[in-house]
Amino acid sequence: MPTQDMTLQDQELGQRLTALTIGMDQLERRLSRGHGVLDSEGLVPIYLGQDLVPAPTYQDWEEVHSELAALDQATRHIAPSPRRAFLEDMLRSLRTAARLFEGEELSFKEKLEQLVGVPAEPVSEDVIQDLQGRIDTLLHDAGYRSGTLAERVHRWEADGAIASADLSTTFRALMNEAQRRTDALIYPTGDYTMALNEVRGVPFTARCNFNAGQMDLNVDLNFTRSALKHLVCHEVFPGHSTQLLYTRAAAERGESTPDVLLCTANAVTGCVQEGIGDQGVHLIDWVEDTNDAIHMTLRRLRSASATSAAWYQMGAGWSEDRVRAFLRDTSYGQPVWIDGRIRFASYSFRGPFIASYWHGDEAVRTVRERIHPDQRAAFIDTLYGQMHSPRSLMMFQA
């Protein structure tokens, strides 16, 4: 939906949806006091729109459900479109979040389908085997021809691992180039930058700590240059930090509906947010060599494997030892990464969002690969300038 096609109805619904979501965030934080299903993170971890759409003060969840019902009714009057699809998916997601915040117990299947907005199933074994086959071919072309596929992956990662003393310098060089490309191809990011913040003992690989101006990096893991490049693109340019800068400016100028301010919400929007991050290297045309191709394919394999493993762990009731063996034999991930995926999947609210990486990446990738060059500008405007669920994004038409 280009800016000129926005209606007053779109703006009003966007305003109300944003207020509702931020109001839910504040109510959950106030009632849980940092000990609810989201701990201290809240429903919207990073919100830059306090002066544009302030949070209403809800007294209880009954008020939230009343506004959800009213927005449901308003959405029914919108013609079938990507906008309507997104609003339907987002309202279902928020209804599910409210139920969880109230203490209702939901199955992992219900959380995947209703909160995250993705299928409650593992990734197809055919897809996983196809990715393994591609990695096998790429490693062979790179000279890694002896040993099992797992052994060759481990050897390739060990050979290319960045020394700990060089991490910060490599990070800055990659970030500078990523920003240059992002400014040229996505959005002018101005003087915004991030510092590298090395952390240990955490369940994530990297994290965008936007308000502190830091990219947190789990240095219990080893990183190749291609892996660190991907993380810079995911967390900073053109990923999460860029999306935050873009959406704040677009909402302030009235070029986007106010709900773009919800880009970090722990809701159905999370899929496309993670998809932008995981497609970041491609969005700024930065696959340089075979090593990059190996890592990007390996990343997709690990995302697919983690999605399947989370389902086996939380949906099918596999033991942690069985899940760990599956991840080891399928993804060839480092033990610290495997342990982190198992911890992530077990979290009551955030756990199902492990699937948002695979499904969000697939949605953004599918649309990116099918557009013509003359549709790119419209695609970028749609991707960054609107909120989407995977379903609404897949409806993109330039």
Write the SSE topology.
Blueprint: H1 8-32, H2 61-75, H3 82-101, H4 108-116, H5 125-141, H6 149-159, H7 167-185, E1 195-199, E2 206-209, E3 214-218, H8 225-235, H9 240-253, H10 269-278, H11 280-283, H12 290-315, H13 320-331, H14 335-346, H15 355-370, H16 376-385, H17 390-393
Parallel strand pairs: 1-3
Antiparallel strand pairs: 2-3
Helix pairs in contact: 1-2, 1-3, 2-3, 3-4, 5-6, 5-12, 7-8, 8-10, 10-15, 12-13, 12-14, 12-15, 13-14
Q: What is the SS-derived class? A: mainly alpha
* Biggest sheet architecture: 3 strands, mixed
Taking Cα atoms only, what radius of gyration do you get, to the nearest Å?
21 Å
Low-confidence segments: none
Give the number of helices.
17
Looking at the structure, what is the overall shape? globular
Mean pLDDT across residues: 96
Spatially, the strands of the biggest sheet line up as 1-3-2
Distance between the ends: 9 Å
The total beta strand count reads: 3
Order of helices and strands: HHHHHHHEEEHHHHHHHHHH
| Percent of residues in β-strands | under 5%
Helix content: 55-70%
Protein name: DUF885 domain-containing protein
Organism: Deinococcus seoulensis
